[in-house]
Amino acid sequence: MHDDEPEAAVLRLGHRPGRDDRMTTHVGLTARALGADRVWFPDNAGQSLETVADITDRFGGPFEADLTDSPKALLREWDGRVVHLTMYGERVQDVETEIRRAHRDDGEPVLIVVGSEKVPFDVYELADWNVGVTNQPHSEVAGLAVFLDRLFEGEELEAEWEDADRRVVPMETGKRVESPDETGTEASDDG
Amino acid sequence: MHDDEPEAAVLRLGHRPGRDDRMTTHVGLTARALGADRVWFPDNAGQSLETVADITDRFGGPFEADLTDSPKALLREWDGRVVHLTMYGERVQDVETEIRRAHRDDGEPVLIVVGSEKVPFDVYELADWNVGVTNQPHSEVAGLAVFLDRLFEGEELEAEWEDADRRVVPMETGKRVESPDETGTEASDDG
Known about the structure:
- Chains A, B: This is tRNA (cytidine(56)-2'-O)-methyltransferase.
- The structure is a homodimer.
- The longest helix of chain A is centred in the N-terminal third of the chain and has 14 residues, at 46-59.
- Chain A has 2 domains: 8-160, Alpha/beta knot (3-Layer(aba) Sandwich), CATH 3.40.1280; 165-191, no CATH class.
- In chain A, the strands form 2 sheets. A 6-stranded parallel β-sheet of chain A has the order 3-2-1-5-4-6, with helices on both faces. A 3-stranded antiparallel β-sheet of chain A has the order 7-8-9, with no helix packed on it.
- Chain A has helices spanning 21-33, 46-59, 71-77, 92-105, 121-126, 140-151, and strands spanning 8-13, 38-42, 64-68, 81-91, 110-115, 129-132, 167-168, 177-178, 185-186.
- Chain A is an alpha/beta fold.
- In chain A, strand 2, helix 2 and strand 3 form a beta-alpha-beta unit.
- Chains A and B meet through helix 1, strand 4, helix 4, helix 5 and strand 6 of A and helix 1, strand 4, helix 4, helix 5 and strand 6 of B.
């Protein structure tokens, strides 16, 4: 997670344009907001890439988003550990300590693989850990979020964002968005 | 979270049929998988309701999914505390202890409100807490997932499911789905 920590990257595997656009975008935005350093999307997910790049421009980084035309090669050649999130995997509460130890103590980069529909069997075999955030069907975005929050033990929530045009100021009630350089407040049109 | 705990319910506010179908469905499935007792969807989200009910039939409960034609009335008349998840709210790490105390120690039911696009201002005012899982734009599904995992302090991952037709057996590699009554294994066609 940034600075002196080994890399944590997210690979979105599989994307059906149209149907998966928002899920793929949310995988990317969740990766960014919850402490990953970068995301790779399949090369037919250019729209998701644009959205994530635009959010990074406005709300800050560091965060890299890229397309890949060979996710399998990326996976095979990854110089570090691979975690595949799947409802069929080992329980996250049983393996998170071991994964954290590899990542934070042993300094190994971690690639977190998030599938869409059917994930080919060799991904299960290539992964160092197949991990279930519950063994129930729910959402790859939810699974990624809980996994990152546990991998970083909540420290990702304290991140400082660089080169942001705007910063949301936490409030009990209402919305407040500031420019980091100024004391000015702007109205927001976000939901 | 089930049994002797006060209720935790999720209210999905706003739904645009077509565009929001999968996000709304994932809000419901995440609520179920991560320990909430029920979800309400807007009454134009019947398709999401069907999917969540079908998953509950197959993978077990208890979990209730319903439509509401008056989410605002439900919110106003809720007999307990209201948490509204929003990127403009107070930082989850700053308020989670207080919310957990109200819910688990004082036994107050909690209604967790998850918006889609623009949330009306009176929702911010009706909420006991406006809570940001980061003050970054990402995903309402991710925010809900991290919030529930923190509210229940991971205990939701140990849930036992009742009346399930099938149960996924956590595995290091591969997929295994069993019928809870038998020792038989069936092939899965889930992704």
